[in-house]
Design a protein that fits this description.
The structure holds 2 protein chains of 2 kinds.
Chain A: H1 3-30, H2 37-64, E1 70-80, E2 83-91, H3 95-116, H4 123-142, H5 146-164, H6 171-202, E3 211-212, E4 219-220, H7 224-241, H8 250-253, H9 259-268, H10 273-280, H11 282-286, H12 289-310, H13 316-336, H14 341-360, H15 364-375, H16 392-403, H17 408-440
Antiparallel strand pairs in A: 1-2, 3-4
Helix pairs in contact in A: 1-2, 1-4, 2-3, 2-4, 3-4, 3-9, 4-5, 5-6, 6-7, 7-10, 7-12, 9-14, 12-13, 12-16, 13-14
Chain B: H1 2-10, H2 22-33, E1 50-54, E2 62-63, E3 68-72, H3 82-107, E4 120-123, E5 127-130, E6 136-137, H4 142-145, E7 153-157, H5 161-170, H6 172-179, E8 183-188, E9 195-199, E10 202-205, E11 215-216, H7 219-223, E12 233-235, H8 236-239
Parallel strand pairs in B: 1-3, 1-7, 7-8, 11-12
Antiparallel strand pairs in B: 2-12, 4-5, 5-6, 8-9, 9-10
Classes of the chains: A mainly alpha, B alpha/beta.
Chain lengths: 450, 248
Amino acid sequence: MTGHDVVAALVVMQLAAPAATLGLVGLPALLGRPLSERATTQIVGAGFAVGFLAAISVLGLLFARGFTPEVVHSGTWFAVGHHAATVNLVADALSVPYVCFSTGLCWLVNSFAGKYLHREPGFTRFFILLALFGTGMNLMVLADSIDVLFAGWEFVGISSALLIGFFFERRNAIDAALRAYTTYRICDVGLLAAGVVIHRAVGSGDFERLFGADWPASTSLVPAGTATVVSLLLVFAALGKTAQVPFSGWLPRAMEGPTPSSAIFYGALSIHAGAYVLLRCEALLDAAPPARAALVVIGAGTALHASVVGRVQTDLKSMLAYASMAQASLILVEIGLGWRVVPLVHVVGHAILRSLQILRSPSALHDRHELEAAIGGHPDLGGWSPLSWLPAGAQAAAYRIALERGYEEMAVTKFVVGPALRLLERLAAAERAWVTWLGEKPPRRAGGRP
Amino acid sequence: VAAADAHERCRRFETARLDITPGAARAHVEARSVDLAQVRPELGHATNAVCIVGRRWRTRGLFLDRRAFLVSYDPTADDDGAILTRTLAAVGPVGAGINLEYYFSIIDRLGYGSGTKLPHNITGLVGVMDGHASDLRTGLPWQMVEIHEPVRLLVIIDAPPERILAAAARVPAVERLAANRWIQLVAWDPGGSGLHVFTAGRFVPFEGERCVQPVVERSIDWYRGHREHLPPARITAALGGRAGEVRA
């Protein structure tokens, strides 16, 4: 067995282990005989543990060889003419540390949720979705072609929406899930279109035909025009999952699911999925100044928006959602500036801190009491804010804008959703009129009746 | 004692094995109390059903399954009922308040209770709401009441019926609770005339079926291996060999 075979087996294991738990836990549940809570948690946990250990081993092997990437060819998904969608995975300086971190977090949240969801009616469902998410995340991270990446991206999106709607008996949860899912789908168009453009430009979705040299020193192999189009589409795709203005409204609402899923999705992994895709394709961004400029402008704008709006939120999970949004926006700015290692470090650091904060949020009253007991009074949390430099009138205006969440939703509803709905309603009315008109038309020939 | 106490609480926790040892039970409840992921650190007053106001020796050796509020009161040192009045003024509203909070939180988990804890979101450091936006949730969460049995508080008072009537008449809150049947008052007559149930404004002698009370040496012999509610039992180890004046 050569070194390549060992790495290949370990990389496939990072995908296969969580995917296998999906079947092990999902099949008995489908057959109406769900496993016990303990077995469910242990199986899903074991899947993540195996994936994590495999990822750590690959990291060690890669480190020993100076981070030379290993591409694993797992076969062709489908081939039409000269187009081929191959299932290629890559172990390099970006994907392997990322898998270590994401699978490790999934493993941790799995242990947390095993206790947190004890006796909950949707217990098995939660762990099935968590395993689906872990599989999708690893697929997306290890992908060495835009097709595989898109498949993983979709798994992440659907599991995220289903977990927001976890308490499907509550209207708010369903509305929030639908809102997130709609936002995702709109932005997914960007990723799908980017895939089509890449296929047309280089004849396959493989990244090795797009990028020369290894991450983080990768360079673009395609003409600047193609790179610009693909980059802009990828930026559009990233806006949804990263909750950038004008697609940010779903994120605070997404805090409807159980706390552990909010922590791993909106504090840690799902929120950074867009940043990961951009990091992976940063060679294209380097050749596309308009896309980088767009990232910096949107990222900086959203960071400002999230920071101001987050200050007036009265509930803990909305505060954390806006804090998450602000950091994710800064990460996009860093990517837009052409940095590679800094955003990666920022992602990992932010994800770990934020998921801890969200997991701790149910204990906030308890923590507060302990703090007050320890210092013998109310802590002075007034603090300094950059907004205090503004003149009084501007401060009041900023406060009003923040309370209305920057009028973002109002604008989107009024100028985008409303016209779109009216257009669809008009089309539906036209269809009804047309069908009625067709129905009223007398038959030209008397046909034989059955 | 701490280990034995922890062991008795552990029988209600599904994550603690039924054959757990007292030492392990203590470690288990200590770990629960500091576990961020634990939504049931303790079960609190869940299952509460009875409040017994009286001399402690009258219930000594009686296994009440942690379902009773025990309030000390000595009827022999309170001829004018002044102490009983003060005791009832505190015990009635507080005990009934706790009991009814559990009662209503379980009969309507979403309306009076606050649903499951899992999506709860702390708001303004004053309370919780469900997820991103909802009314403030004021009742008890499902995790706190799931093993509760919705019963009204049975208040058993070690005092003559007339003294209880007089005391209740002096505390309007208690009188309203009893008259409107939010609680059930029972007089456990120190004079030996048995139990009297408060019905339609007066105490009538209790005519219950006679049941044989199980007798075990230690409480662990009675609850070991059970998670469900248990009927009272006589614990001989607590009586120190002499028969107490315990009545069913």
